[in-house]
Amino acid sequence: MSFARYETIVASLAAVAALYGCAGNGNGLDSNGNPVTPGGGDGALTADFQSIQDHVFTPICTKCHQGASAPFGLQLDATHSYALLVGVASAEQPSVLRVEAGDPDSSYIVRKLEGAAGISGQQMPLGGPYLPQATIDVIRQWIMNGAQKGATAQSIESAVKSVQRFAVDTTSPDDGSIVSTTVPQIVVAFNGDIDPNLINNTTISLESGPDQPVLFSTAVPTGNPAALLIKPQVQLGNGTYRLTLHGPLANVNAQALGADVSFTFTVDALQ
Amino acid sequence: MITRALRYLLAPLMLLAAFGANAEPYLAVQTGFKCGQCHVNPTGGGERTVFGNIFAQTQLAAHHIDTGSDLWTGEISKYLSVGGDLRVQAQVTKQPGSSSTDDFDVEQGRIYASANVIPGRLYVYVDEQVAPTSINREAYGVYWSKDHDWYVKAGQMYLPFGFRLQDQSALVQQITGINMTTPDQGVEFGVERGHWDAQLAISNGTASGPEVDHGKQYSGQLSYVESFWRIGLAANINNAAAGNKTAGGLFGGLRTGPIAWLGQVDITDDKSLPAQSGRQLATLLEANWRIAQGHNLKLTHEYLDPNRSVANDAETRYSIVYELTPIQYVQIRSGFRYSDGIPQNPLQHLKIGFVELHGFF
Fold it and tell me: Residue B3: its pLDDT value, please?
């Protein structure tokens, strides 16, 4: 076979391959490329948390930031993201909040997305493509507006809360997880705003074994009153830890947990 | 921000010309070499060997500025060699429904160094990104066998999986999460026997972040290299508490006259994502036309099925990049990228134009 003929065949195969790989028409999908579900909604990115979750965190960030192996424990799936972002210190730079309500310039997430000077590690999303500035500006606007969960979500939540018992939504580390790095803080997200007056050493306990309490401090993140930060006063060494939230702990509507809620996680540094 | 006038000046530049020459897989396909011929790293990328440095000066540049007998080889001494890359670009991005953005970026500046403590047998290598932010990319030690037919590498390294493309945002590199921005910490064992190359790496599976569980990542590839074609298989398994991620790849290259073709197909299955949404497929088809020495035209078609369980959601990207290497150590790349995807998502319809200045040594 002549070389020219050989090239023609290769070029033709390439053209066929290129034509085969055409973009989807998007029929039946939302803007994330997921099938539209009955009753589901969609639309352009707007400066509210649910929209940012649907357009940015879920389709882009959860490729890595999901599950027990999420980098720096930052899980950005819909269940965890708000509790682990708003008012929570960055693991890379603990003096900076991931989202500081009302102050996008100080919020670490914005600095990471923009690749600002002084960040640790790399600009996100890791390896790019990076978010267009217009998208980051929407996130900035959401933070500037107070980093709320959003009017729709809040109205639904408040309606649910009125009939729902106060309970734990999510924790980080997750119950039963094994982590091999330092755990500077434990995050507990509730399904309602916790009453800060009830947070003390009798309503929360952290143990490294039977009758082996671990001293800690607590805080409710600014702008995120449904979350609780528990910071051990010493670095957690290898071992299994049990965090217990006792029954009297209640939300601002005086609805108590009722029964103790415990979860465990294991720190197992490999080195 | 660049001015509107400058933007108009850049636009025809992008359409007309630019340059290019850097250690990319297409050069290996054009020449029939293995990656380790031109790079210290046997799997490619980073510091160039003496051969790679001389090749870059004499075979890539359109015009060679005569420096007499003074020729940069990277070797400071018998025991120490260095290298570097600097990429600076001006880019214009247009997203439907939004005004265009334009900016100058220091895409990256990297410095490489090798301490050849036992020349030819044992060396310590560092790849340090110094701009726009400082971060270590690779830091490892390598021991080569006496006959140079196998090696062991330990430290932080890029993982072996298919072509090590210069474009880190290539879709085939996105879905696997394995590229030159995601090194990992572990060990790699490699074999080079005749036409055959094989590597197997065991690493944390955290993209150089801290280990978070007992699961490990296993990356391997096997390739066969002939003078005008090559083919390879790659596999990756990342065991994680949240769910295992597996990836498989088939890649190959072919030279037909002045054109070097690259192709790669990757599939992934990420069990940590819900409802099979981690089942992805991406392809790369690239043609590099060596118009003349120092001039390369690169045409690329990329395809991504972001969820193999869902129809009508595919994305494509077309790129045209003209690369000019006017003189040794200097490359100018100019190109245009058109993305196409589902009409609902403007982020899948970006149009990007860029001019990049690339200095390397």
Answer: 41
Tell me the one-letter amino acid at B86.
Answer: L
Nearest CA of chain B to the CA of A267: how many Å?
9
Integer-rounded Cα radius of gyration of chain A = 23
Contact at CB, B256 and A27, closer than 8 angstroms: no
Enumerate residues 7 to 26 of chain A having a beta carbon within 8 A of any beta carbon in chain B.
7, 10, 14, 17-18, 21-26
* Within a domain: B281: yes
The model's pLDDT over B109-145, given as tens digits with 9 standing for 90+, comes to 999 999 999 999 999 999 999 988 788 899 999 999 9
Q: Which residues of chain A does B95 touch, with a Cβ-Cβ cutoff of 8 Å?
A: 132, 134
The answer to whether the beta carbons of residues B287 and B299 sit under 8 Å apart is yes
* A residues 171-230 closer than 8 Å to B (CB): 177-181
CB proximity list for B188: less than 8 A, separation 6 or greater:
B152, B153, B154, B157, B159, B160, B199, B200, B201, B202
pTM above 0.80, yes or no: no
Q: How confident is the model at residue A16 (pLDDT cuts 50, 70, 90)?
A: low
Q: List, for residues A107-136, the tens digit of each pLDDT value.
A: 999 999 988 888 887 888 887 778 888 888
pLDDT of residue B187: 98
Would B259 be classed as within a structural domain? yes
List CB contacts (< 8 A) between B342 and chain A: 23-26, 29, 31, 33
For chain A, which residues make up each domain, given as ranges? Answer: 49-144, 165-267
Name the CATH architecture for the domain at A165-267: Sandwich (2.60)
Q: pLDDT at position B143, please? A: 97
Q: Is residue B133 part of a domain?
A: yes
A98 in Cβ contact with A109 (< 8 Å): yes
Please tell me the total count of domains within chain B: 1
Domain that holds residue B178: 4-64+74-322+333-360
CATH number at residue B241: 2.40.160.10
Q: Tell me what ipTM this predicted complex has.
A: 0.72
Distance between B161 CA and the closest CA of chain A, angstroms: 16
Tell me the longest C-alpha to C-alpha distance in chain A. 86
To 5 degrees, how large is the angle CA B183–CA A128–CA B48? 45
* Residue B20, domain member (yes or no): yes
What pLDDT band is residue A157 in, cutting at 50, 70 and 90?
low
Q: Tell me the average pLDDT across B213-240.
A: 93
